[in-house]
Design brief:
two-stranded antiparallel sheet, Rossmann fold, alpha/beta, 7 helices, 9-stranded mixed beta sheet
Length: 239
């Protein structure tokens, strides 16, 4: 079949430089990417899977909270991405969340966030770099472990918020050395994995490329399944 098409949400501020990196990772994994953002068409029915990308913090109003720390917010993007996650789950299409996208996956499924995670997890070392300096530990018997293995992983880190209460159907897939959640995933299909780091910047690392391969493989499998469904005759449905 053709390469599965993956919709990629981006920040209005930094999407122009991040999207090419994500698209390249998706291409190497066997897919092709289309950029989505506020003001751009974003239709789940037209793609085989999605990436919810990184960027600004998520407004706490989405999970019933109040703003506790100074944050750069984008309410229009919040609404768009929550809708896309919900529609992906309803249509059985896979999702990969990157940094903010991991948090959005959790919020869209009913979870919430710790707005000042490093104040809560004081043993978690804080980094703000695209270089792989943070150590994370993958939880055994998770989908992430099946993709990237169980060895401790060096990743980058740019976030200040983190998952607190898990959304419906999610489990923790990785934590850092201070216990802060660094990855979440759905327990059942459809494929949905959120990583707190930025694997698109670690394209040279095979374990990071494996995360994109997992998304594309799930997108391809879903597209093949849909292609085998019998076509519905619109006229026959009216009878």
């Amino acid at each position: 079949m053709m390469r599965p098409l993956i919709g990629v949400t981006t920040s209005q501020r930094s999407g122009w430089r991040i999207f090419p990196l994500v698209a390249l990772n998706i291409w190497f994994a066997g897919g092709r990417a289309v950029r989505w953002g506020v003001g751009r068409p974003a239709d789940i029915a037209k793609v085989d899977g999605i990436v919810i990308g990184g960027g600004d913090d998520i407004s706490p109003t989405l999970y019933g909270g109040t703003l506790q720390v100074e944050s750069r917010l984008d309410p229009d993007r919040d609404r768009m991405e929550r809708r896309l996650v919900e529609e992906s789950m309803a249509q059985g299409k896979p999702v990969l969340g990157i940094c903010r996208g991991s948090q959005m996956l959790n919020v869209a499924l009913g979870g919430d966030l710790d707005q000042d995670a490093y104040a809560t997890y004081r043993d978690s070392r804080r980094y703000r770099t695209i270089l792989p300096r943070k150590t994370v530990h993958v939880v055994e018997e998770t989908r992430l472990a099946g993709l990237a293995g169980m060895r401790k992983m060096k990743v980058n880190a740019l976030h200040s918020q983190a998952v607190r209460r898990l959304g419906s159907g999610l489990r923790v897939a990785a934590r850092d050395e201070g216990g802060m959640v660094q990855a979440v995933e759905r327990i059942r299909d459809p494929f949905a994995v959120g990583v707190q780091w930025h694997p698109e910047h670690l394209i040279y690392a095979h374990r990071q490329r494996a995360i994109f391969r997992g998304l594309v493989a799930a997108a391809r499998a879903g597209a093949e399944d849909r292609a085998q469904l019998p076509e519905v005759d619109a006229e026959a449905e009216k009878v």
